[in-house]
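Aim 2 progress update. The chain analyzed this quarter is reproduced below.
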Amino acid sequence: MENNTIAKIRKVRIPIKLKLIAVVILLVASSLSYYAYFALKLFREDKSAYIYETGLNTSEAIAKQVASFLDHALQITDYLGRIYANTPEQEKMAKSIFEANKNFIEFSIYKRTEVDGEFKLIFAVSDEISLSGQGLPVDYFIKYSQINPIPFLMIEKKRRYVEGYNPASQFPHLVLATFDAEKNEIYVARVKMDDLADLIANNKIYEILIIDKSGRLFLKKNLSAEIPQAKALFYNSLVDSVDRKDGVSNYVDENGTTFLVAHNQISGEDLFVFAEISKDRAFLAATTLMNKSLYFGIFLISIAIIIGIIFSRTITSSIEKLFSATSTLAQSDFKNRVELHSHDEIGALSDSFNYMADEIVRYMGQMGEKIRLENELKVAKLVQESFFPANNLKFGKLEIAAFYEPATECGGDWWGHLQINGKTVLMIADATGHGVPAALLTATANCSASNLEIMAQSDPSLLNSPAKMMRIVNKAVCDIGSQILMTFFIAVIDTKKNELIYANASHNHPLHFIPGQSGEEISKQNLHPLMDSNGPRLGERKDASYNDCTISFCSGESIVFFTDGIVECTNKEEKPWGNRNFLKSIINNINLESDKFRDNVVGDAKDFFAAHPLDDDITLIVTKFT
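Predicted structure tokens:
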């Protein structure tokens, strides 16, 4: 036996020292990984929020500055047009205001003619210095307008018009226009892009682009550089799909580089400012932190390995002692104990081992006692089962079908019968509670039934008074001095006279079924409880009195005897089956044969209880008069 036990103990292939080192490394590595993951995630989320907010703020600030610039230029354009009255003085004032605004390079007025309704140029002034600086003639924009017509109808409809960079122009400029409905005139100003270009160029972090709602470039940092086709398509789709004035989107170029793009609509215009930055550049700080965290983690793991090697031997020596002690315990030697003096978990484990060994010794003693008690209960159960008659009985015109199931090994319900002088004495009892004490009381009831049989054989008149029988059983119960009480019901059935005499000691009233007229539907009105006799429970007092009651019965009638367990036991929701369900089941099955009637009623109850343990013993007796 000893050799078999030793053979079952596996060989040590991986020393605990290496496992401890591995655990330390794993713990440190996992802790660092979790820390790095959540810290970097938090940092990245915070950084993302900051970047998105900065991008939005940048695009919003530029949008406001561009809007301010355009509003100011449009106001001057409108003002120049309104003060012009086609007189030398007004023309001179308009030219002086024009020259005072260095950003203006050309201003012109177009008036609708009454003949054909077309807009015709009636006044124009140009910045000759700026044009000559570009090597262009003074009338360059007049000729340019003939090649690139001004959209008069659009200007008339929208009342104000802004046009950005046009590659066809040799002098990059903005076109601003307003419509005076009262004079039926359109005022057009061509403005330098220098201030707006400087505004965009001065932003060193973001690449700024301005695009109109049709997807056409309005302004960017390097006007001569073409926008890649994929990027142009992305911006066009973004302009078409935006359902709000600002936001942030992601864009991946043809090289796989991801960009963060913040956009903001310029107030009052169909123009959108886009602030673009590569994601790698935006999250450079997070990438740097991740790399440094990796180096720091490697350093900590190295320290953990060194510490694990130094302290593992101290720990493993104590574990080896515990291992040796467990091996001895596996060989059924419960006397061995472990003596460790370290004030740590290993020392506490040795105390736990010693306590466990003591508990095993105590538990083995208790198990022996428990097995002995269980064997005695099994014997008691077998003895109690001998108290009950067969489940299916027939005595002439009387059929009896019974069912009994205890809630534990030994129950507190009991039923029995006597056959004396052609009469049937049917008895049913229910001791308070269940288990061994209640089972002992049922043994008393069974013994009393045997005594009644002997007494009735010598004195047949006893069969005429169930109340007298009840007093005899009550005296027997009181004499044993138990604190447990018992309900009891005795019925003497005479099938020759079709007569039943009964006495009751606080037991559940049996139900007498009397069928109605032929074809009449059965209801609870056909069930008549036998409740005219009702005395105190057995064991309450020796001088208790009981009375006899007599009923007559006919062929086709039935009487159902039962204990309260069948109506009071509950399901897993703690709901009892109850009298209503019990009566419904009786009515549904009353016309069946006695054994099928019993089985169906018990089946309905058990379907309700399901797998929930019984709260009380169950007894059901069906008697039919044929």
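The longest strand covers residues 104-112. The CA atoms of residues 571 and 608 lie 6 Å apart. These observations will guide the mutagenesis experiments scheduled for the next reporting period.
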